[in-house]
Please model this.
Amino acid sequence: MFHRSYSILLLIVLAGTIFGTSQVYSMLPEEPTVSLVKVNLHSAAEIDQFQALKIPAYARLNGRSGEFILIKTDPTGLYTLSQTSLTFQVLDKNVSDNPYYLVYLRPDRVAIKAVDYGRVLWAEASQYLLQTNTVKAELLLEAGAEINRIGEQPIVWAASMEPIPSIAVIEPEPTIQEMINQVNSSTVNKYNGDLSGEWPVIIDGSPYTINTRYTYSGESIQKATQYVGQHFTDLGLDVEYHQWSGITYPNVIGEITGRTNPDEVYIVSAHLDDLPSGATAPGADDNGSGSTAALIAADIFSQYEWNCTIRFGLWTGEEQGLDGSEAYAQRAHNQGENIAGVLNLDMIAYDSDTDPILDLHARTAIPGSIVIANTFVDVVDAYQLDLQPDILIDNWLGNYSDNKSFWDEGYSAILAIEDDDDFTPHYHTTSDQLSTLNIEYFTEFTKAAVGTFAHMTGCLLVDSTGQLNGHVTNAADMTPINNVSLALTGMISTTLTTNPAGYYSSTLPIGAYTITTSAPGYMSVTKNVSIQSEVITTQDFALPEYFYQFLPIIGKESFEYTKFVSLAENS
Model:
């Protein structure tokens, strides 16, 4: 419920219900303070009611008692809220420069008192909202807490309670089965050992042992990002080092550009950084495991053709509050990128019992996330993988990994993580080593990730494509025509262009197409063609020219009338 005892300022705001709005505004200070406010959302009607207010939200979160948002607003906004039926609570009367963190204190860790690390603004079971500085936030991490920094920019509002899109029941596909079969325990073990400092790796031609991947470790995190970037480069991927803050710890993104729909983007993601902050931080499970799976996915997916763009995102700054992925997701939104789905892998290798359970976190507010989670479950069933996935919708633990950064920008994403009821006891310690991992479980988890991603994109172009090529010439003398546009409609719609020798070529999904040519000075020609699997289809065009011919107008001596005729018409 909304409390009426926060400050004289709030009493002035509420006085508007008695004295009238104009009197309240005349009583407001010249420079009103900005407050941090928690607004509870218990139903679709309340979500719609808040959305209609057009007040920016800075976080959309889940607690044990339901969904809530955090807003920063002045007394005018508080008055607007007070005129609705929404329940809200002012957490901080005056927003200052110190950041806010959502903090989860794991019950299986040594007892931590949140009040020792900052100002507690809200608490619910093991989850807290603290205002503190970055130094104390780092101490919280060292003590075993999970944190999520509340961003400085408003989030993108995604309407809740939308219908969940349906998907067809997944049937095993030979090509995707082939992909899954390429995942093996020896590679899983090798890549994880590379990342967790079990042995030296070759980086820029020289051996180097990655003893820590702590974001602010300097040379070590720089070498870790180089190792990942070098891996992507060796596979022929386009590589970006996304410099979101310091020069030594960029996000690393590898990309396979889609052939016909490059603007549709899917991302396999994991955070590369780890803890603790000392000279040694193996981070084999957190999150060498997710990073290993992303590298293996790149190995496999780079062998195939894709209709959409595939990216492999390795984030830094995750442990400090999702900093690297937040910067990347915000940039993607600001640039209008169409990120159709994100599979975020974080801690996928620890399992100490006989039940290979894993958790899939999705959100009602992002219906596409539930589709991805269901796809993961269906893949496990269809390919008979030895895993037991549980879908957790609107669970507060989904607030603490990089999927949250994409949720905040309205993108569909899930978190795939080991069972929280069988969580690694080595979390954020130097004992988080390769020897503590269940390699069989880790391998099965990676197989499921590969299969899920291949199915969720729906844009694999292997064994369902054919080659189309042809030659475009002048119908009069058979000379080649450069820069002819060929518009294709059918299974996909795209436009091809002839080269200076008059040739064109493309790999296309199998099916029927209509091709229409367009070139200045030539008549348009339309033909139908059928593309068959793994078959080269040739379709040539001979284009008639247009030319000018002057015709006399009957009854006049001068030639005043002009029309276009083709060579065919003139003959």
